[in-house]
Amino acid sequence: MCHFKMGGMRMRLLILKFYVFVCCACFETQEICKMVDLIAQRFLNDTCLVVFSNNGCAFKSVIPALYFDPYDTLLENENMDSETYKTTYLTEILEIGCNGFVIQTKNPARQFVLLEETFVLVNNRGNRKLIFLPLLEKSSFKNLDSHSIVETRSANYVPNLIMVEPSVTKNIFNLKTHYFGGTSNQSKEIIVLDTYNITSGKFLLDANLFPDKIKDLQGKILRAAVFHYMPYVVLTGNDTQNNSQIDGTEWRMALQFAKFHNCTFERFVSDEESWGTIFDNRTGNGVLGALVEDRADIGFVALYTWYHESLYLDLTTAYIRTGVTCLVPPPHRLPLWRSPILPFSPELWAGVVTTLIICNVVSFLLHYGANYIFFEDNKIVSAIAALEVAGIFLQQGLIKNRKELSWRTMAFSMLAVSVLLCTAYSSSLASAMTVPRYDAPINSAEDMANRDLKWAATHDAWIFSILQTDDPELKIVLKNFRIVKFNEIIKRSAEMEWGFSIERLSSEYLQQKYVEKMHLMASDIYWENCVFMLRKSSAYTTWFSLRILQVLASGIPARWEDQVVAEYLDYGTQKAVSKETFVDQGPMKMTVAQVQGTFFILFLGLLLALCVFVGEITLKRSVQI
After folding, report:
1. C-alpha distances in angstroms, 340 versus 295, 430, 600?
2. Cα-flanking dihedrals φ and ψ of residue 606, to 5°?
3. Each residue of 103-136: pLDDT tens digit?
4. How high is the pLDDT of residue 614?
5. Over the stretch 283-295, which tens digit does the pLDDT of each residue have?
6. 137 forms bridges with which residues in the sheet?
7. According to the model, what pLDDT value does residue 391 have?
8. How far apart are CA 622 and CA 467, in angstroms?
9. How many angstroms separate the CA atoms of 24 and 34, rounded?
10. β-strands 220-226, 298-304: how paired?
11. Could you tell me which residue ranges the Ionotropic glutamate receptor L-glutamate and glycine-binding domain spans (predicted)?
12. What pLDDT, in 10s, does the model give residues 304-330?
């Protein structure tokens, strides 16, 4: 036997591996140990077995057994309170990963409750199985209070319980369990699974001591936390739990589970807080709060694989991929006075200007070289050289017929380039003056960050998935997120100032008159997987995930979505959302506005010429004086 110190408190730990023989002297006979060993070998196919016993019992089993002090012992010896026992003692035990438990204490119901309350605090999850043994007192077994065990709230969440009770017949033990299924009263009914004869060392019926009670829940009522959010869950009529009718894609998925497992869902409507929030003290509101506080057995309505929530709840397998994007303000129409510069992109304009500069430099060098070669003393005027180059690019005649072959070669090259540029410019200008031009649309999270766009939703669940992002652009997007009421969203959508989060699937959006004027982003801000959520270490998680996979394999969810959309959602709004852009791109009549830029260039040229003329006169007069 090995003794360990954990958290500054005494804890006795004994590990038995593979057929190590240990005397079972703490029982009246060794036969009760043999019974537990048989159960462990046949039904507890796990890594280890945890034993809480006031009798200091030991088992001979192929499964390693870990022995720990029950709460009653520590309460008497060290006056330990229940919270300390859970947080500093049980948590370390449950993190080991064992899912088989033997409880033999003075107060088994209390030990059971503490164990279940601690299970939701640890990372280890599994389908735990518990065996309750009667306590040995004065060489005889004390009757086990099975009713106190099944009356606990914890018994509603654990189907795999065995309660061993001594029979009135000597050497006979009855192995009992609770019904679990059916109504709330039926679920607490105690039934006999089998009988064990310690004389023969055999089970009378050789029954399955841990039957799968989830397969048939016998009409059990499960509480489902939902709220109205189409097309996942649709509440019609009076929005009270008793009078509203319910439908939706996720509701139909839940009904498939109910159909195969013979149970009923009682909806727990959480419209006011919608998704809700889980706080660090394991309380909360909305759908998530109902689950973490055990006010609901299952929750759904567009729940994603959120990391924070996964620490407190069970997540099923994903059943659909959804993308979160935005309806954003449409691209703004470019000012018409910019028509003369619209034909070329900024990069092309930069190339044209660079070409002009290079041609001017080459022209000046050719002038200078000609004077040097031919021993001429012609004065080189930079302005004249620049005007010659500009004239060629504007397809104007030369001021002077030059005889140098080098300059003529350069002039021919510039003329060829100018013809191509002018043709391209003229063609593009015709389009720019007749077809409306817009600035770049907002199509990605990067665009949202660069434009510093504010975007909003009615709940911060829209950003749960990216709260821990390291992407600098997404951090800016997060900073610009706002939580507002739905009426504020309507107001902002009319003003075309903010973006509004939506899922990339048929859903309920803003009014059609606003949607038609907005722009749907081409890419997602992020994408996620939709799941159902249950209480941590729920007995239903495995089966629910299996049913989801079976339904997905059939392809039915796609049909459900079409049916829900056709029955409950506005077709016009869905059609508007499906468009790539909502900007009216109809034909545009020619007006004075289209040639504003041209007249601006003329005005600028005249003004520049006037300034140069005044400067020349002033300079001439100063020279004469």
Report:
1. 67, 10, 10
2. -65, -40
3. 989 899 999 999 999 999 998 888 899 999 988 7
4. 84
5. 999 999 999 999 9
6. 140
7. 79
8. 72
9. 9
10. parallel
11. 225-330
12. 999 999 999 999 999 999 889 888 888
Cα gap 109→592, rounded to integer Å: 88
Looking at every residue in the chain, the average pLDDT score rounds to: 82
CATH number listed for the domain at residues 2-203: 3.40.50
Helix (H) or strand (E) holding 411: helix 405-434
Whole-angstrom Cα distance, residue 621 to residue 625? 6
Q: Note the pTM of the prediction, 2 decimals.
A: 0.78
Amino acid of residue 355: T
State how far the Cα of 289 lies from the Cα of 295, in Å rounded to an integer: 8
Q: Which of 321, 319, 322 has its CA nearest to residue 549?
A: 319
Q: Do 272 and 260 contact (CB within 8 A), yes or no?
A: no
Check: CB of residue 185 under 8 Å from CB of residue 221: no
Phi, psi of 452 (to 5 degrees): 55, 45
Cis omega (within 30 of 0) for bond into 557: no
Answer yes or no: is pLDDT of 520 > 60: yes
User: Residue 69 carries which side chain, given as an amino acid letter?
Assistant: D
Contact yes or no for 155/178 (Cβ under 8 A) = yes
What's the token pair of residue 330?
A: 């449409």
Q: How far is it, in rounded angstroms, from Cα 24 to Cα 26?
A: 6
Q: How many Cα atoms within 13 Å fall on the side-chain side of residue 151?
A: 7
In sequence order, what are the beta bridge partners of 528? 322
pLDDT single digits (tens) 466-498? 999 999 999 999 999 999 888 888 787 777 888
How far is 442 from 326, CA to CA, in rounded Å?
9
CA distance 436 to 170: 97
Neighbours of 317 (CB within 10 A): 16
- How many residues can be counted in the chain? 625
Give the C-alpha separation, 349 to 338, whole Å: 14
Average of per-residue pLDDT across 1-26:
36
Strand partners, 450: none
- Note the pLDDT of residue 608: 84
- Residue 71 · residue 82 · CB < 8 Å: yes
In the block, tokens 């619209």 appear at 342
Partners of 285 in the beta sheet? 277
Q: How many CB atoms lie within 10 A of CB 395?
A: 11
